[in-house]
Design brief:
The protein is α/β, with parallel strands linked by helices and about 180 residues long. The chain has helices at about 15-25, 35-40, 55-65, 95-105, 110-125, 125-135, 150-160, 175; strands at about 5-10, 30, 45, 55, 75, 90-95, 140. The strands form 2 sheets. The chain has a 5-stranded parallel β-sheet with strand order 2-5-1-6-7, sandwiched between helices. α1 crosses α7 and α4 (about 95-105) packs antiparallel against α5 (about 110-125). It is globular and about 45 Å long. The relative contact order is 0.19.
């Protein structure tokens, strides 16, 4: 069986775009977990403060197993993908919070959601969570300033074992400690 590659990261870092490109490049089976959760109604409620649907992670992971193609590379895309223990390799896409802030504003996210996601990116929340579950299978790639093709090339190099990006290699704490200069713009 070919490896199961989980692409995770804070909303807005480029997971969906790169996952589609990677799937094309590898002739892989793309599993978009947000779509899967919607199709299978895998929700256990709604967050009363933030208003988003809460995904039933164990059920989501079971559904992912049902759509795995044993003959293909499987690319599991979504900011919750790292919660599933089936990942043979976890790619955490990272993006400088200043750029993420602009992307999320352009998408029309409300100010609270923008702030929450930008702070999560600055603190490396997805990377830390992924590392807690997957240890050395986690690779962080800083996509700041890189084209989609360049990010794709870096992921391919990781898959080939040519260039590991170990957990902790991306650090935006300085920006965060400086007060996230752009959060109030």
């Amino acid at each position: 069986m070919k490896p199961i590659i989980c692409i995770t990261g804070t909303p807005g870092v480029g997971k969906t775009s790169i996952s589609h490109r990677l799937s094309e490049e590898l002739d892989g089976n793309l599993i978009e977990i947000n779509k899967l959760a919607e199709e299978k109604d895998l929700f256990i409620g709604e967050d009363p403060v933030r208003g988003y649907k809460i995904v039933d992670i164990p059920s989501l992971c079971k559904e992912i197993i049902n759509v795995i193609d044993d003959d293909s590379f499987n690319i599991v895309e979504g900011h919750l993908s790292h919660y599933c223990k089936i990942c043979d390799l976890v790619i955490v896409l990272r993006l400088h919070p200043r750029i993420l802030l602009q992307r999320l504003k352009q998408r029309g996210y409300d100010q609270r959601k923008v702030k929450e996601n930008v702070e999560a990116e600055a603190l490396g929340v997805c990377a830390y969570e992924a590392y807690q579950l997957h240890d050395e299978r986690v690779h962080e790639i800083d996509s700041t300033g890189l084209s989609l093709d360049e990010v794709l090339d870096e992921i391919i190099r990781v898959l080939k074992g040519e260039k590991p990006y170990t957990f902790g290699s991306v650090d935006f704490m300085e920006w965060f400690l400086e007060g996230g200069k752009f959060l109030n713009d």
